[in-house]
Specification:
With about 525 residues, the protein is an alpha/beta fold. It folds into three domains: about 5-25 and about 440-515, Arylsulfatase, C-terminal domain; about 40-190 and about 250-430, Alkaline Phosphatase, subunit A; about 200-245, no CATH class. It is about 20% helix and about 15% strand. The chain contains eleven helices and 20 strands. It has a ten-stranded mixed β-sheet with strand order 6-5-4-3-11-1-12-13-2-14, with helices on both faces. Strand 15 (about 440-445) and strand 16 form a beta hairpin. Helix 6 (about 125-130) packs parallel to helix 9 and helix 7 (about 255-270) packs parallel to helix 8 (about 300-325). It is globular.
């Protein structure tokens, strides 16, 4: 059997039923950007927005007109994927071009995690710097900072961080919304910090005299935890981890969207006369959800629904800034999400009770944390008035290709330092080629192989269901194989009926694993 697997693999990948087909007219199209003005690039990276959370993707209980406008006048992809089903590994894959499962330490990062990206390696912003771009990171980070976990001096310049991996400017959340320290950092220094009230952070034990959500629930004036999230209290909401000091620097959750949006707009205004790349990571839908009061009541779905409207407002502000600067037409805007949705991720915010018939996961099964399709299938919108025509694309695309694809967009030849995982998919991303990738490797509890027809999930003895988040995790001790053209819900496991396809999928995984795990860079 092993001798014929490579032949079978080549045959299946080349066949229309596996890889799709390209018409003669489409295959003749070419891309030549070297003689043109380099486009500005704005990557809007939402947090926990599912495939079915935007009205352009079928949502009925929430309206997202600003995002919908980009989708209606650009390309709306129906088969796009994050690199993993959780935040940190997805961001790692997007910025490095390397599948996160290849490297230890790329799981969900603690608030005091060291920078998980080696500063010596190639990254998306470094590639664009080489192409002459000014680069900025604004918003959610969740990739760690500093050289050693738990050893950061939050009262000084924390390094390495965004600058060391290629960002000229940064205004970021130190970690993520539900983990301390709950402060913004501008160019790797805490914003508004009073050094007479220094910050201390611990993920091992609390500081003497500091209240917690577990012991002092009377101090939880805004949100209460549903599970976990019962340690240090910031802004009337308890978090994961312990923190003391830094009172003047603490954020207010209801103002996070305003703060990061203002700084993103300022970055656009300051750099409008030269090519720039803006990575704008929003936090709205990630817990703790506490939108600004002007968005509360915008939907009937409580804080989660209202947070989606707030996210859409931020998108609109970015568009307004680009238009005001006169650079909207030559700006490539990409809107996508780091993973699929989760409704109850640790706080009593009414999201479960008020969900009604809204389906954040769309027509798919699972969600955040899951190997089922809704874990990584996310919205993906490409908008560029000067080059992109309005259409819906069913091409198979992945965020892992961001580095190689943006390198091609910027006019650079294939750089040898860009990981092989990251492919140049510019033709597909600009709507000129309908097929996209042959396959995508996904990761949650198990690794998966997805083609345009088949989805394979490797055996895993982990639990099948997380009762805290009400998520089907997709783990199974047996092979799973689903025909995604007829069974989007992944309920009809056809592995036994298709042993040859299973063997091919296993071979693809084996071949990918042999490329190396935990490389030096």
């Amino acid at each position: 059997m092993k001798k014929i697997i490579p032949l079978l693999s080549a045959s299946i990948v080349a066949s229309p039923i596996f890889a799709g087909s390209i018409t003669e007219k489409e295959s003749e199209k070419s891309i030549d950007l070297k003689t043109e003005t380099k486009p500005n690039i704005v990557l809007i990276y939402a947090d926990d927005i599912g495939y079915g959370d935007l009205s352009s993707y079928g949502a009925k209980r929430v309206e997202t007109p600003n995002t919908d406008s980009l989708a209606a006048n650009g390309i709306r992809f129906t088969n796009a994927h994050s690199a993993a089903a959780t935040s940190t590994p997805s961001r790692y894959g997007l910025i490095t071009g390397e599948y996160p499962w290849r490297r230890k330490g790329t799981g969900v990062a603690a608030g005091d995690a060291a920078l998980i990206i080696n500063p010596e390696r190639i990254t998306l912003p470094k590639v664009l710097q080489e192409a002459g771009y000014t680069t900025g990171a604004v918003g959610k980070w969740h990739l760690g900072m500093g050289n050693e976990t738990g050893k950061q001096d939050w009262n000084g310049h924390v390094t390495p961080g965004p600058s060391e991996i290629g960002f000229d400017y940064s205004y970021i959340m130190a970690a993520t919304g539900d983990r301390v320290p709950c402060v913004f950092m501008e160019n790797q220094r805490v914003v508004n910090l009073d050094l007479n009230d220094p910050i201390s952070v611990s993920y091992k034990e609390n500081f003497e005299g500091e209240p917690t959500g577990k012991d002092n629930p009377e101090l939880l004036t805004k949100l209460r935890p549903s599970h976990g999230h019962d340690q240090s209290i910031v802004n009337g909401i308890s978090r994961i981890g312990y923190m003391k000091g830094g009172k003047s620097a603490l954020w207010e959750d209801e103002n996070i969207a305003d703060s990061i949006t203002v700084h993103a707009v300022r970055f656009i205004e300051k750099n409008s006369d030269k090519p720039f790349f803006l990575y704008f990571g929003t936090n709205d839908i990630h817990v703790p959800r506490y939108p600004h009061e002007r968005f509360r009541g915008a939907t009937e779905m409580g804080h989660r629904g209202d947070a989606i409207v707030q996210f859409d407002w931020s998108v609109g502000e970015i568009v307004k800034a680009l238009k005001k600067a006169g650079i909207f037409e030559n700006t490539l805007i990409i809107v996508t999400s780091d993973n699929g949705p989760v409704v109850d991720d640790g706080y009593q915010d009414g999201a479960v009770e008020k969900l009604m018939d809204h389906k954040p996961w769309g027509p798919f099964r699972g969600g955040k944390y899951s190997t089922f399709e809704a874990g990584t299938r996310v919205p993906f919108i490409v908008h560029w008035p000067e080059r992109v025509e309005s259409k819906v694309s069913h091409a198979l695309v992945s965020q892992i290709d961001m580095t190689a694809t943006m390198a091609a967009l910027a006019g650079l030849e294939r750089l040898p330092e860009i990981p092989e995982d990251s492919q140049n998919q510019l033709s597909a991303w600009l709507g000129m080629e309908p097929a996209g990738r042959d396959y995508v490797i996904g990761s949650a509890g198990s690794l998966t192989v997805l083609t345009r027809v088949w989805k394979y999930i490797e055996p895993n003895n982990g639990r099948t269901y997380n009762p805290l988040t009400n998520t089907e995790l997709g783990n199974n001790p047996d092979d799973q194989l689903y025909n995604m053209t007829t069974d989007r819900g992944e309920y009809d496991n056809t592995a036994e009926e298709n042993p040859e396809i299973v063997e091919i999928m296993k071979h693809i995984l084996e071949r990918e694993k042999e490329k190396g795990i935990g490389l030096d860079l």
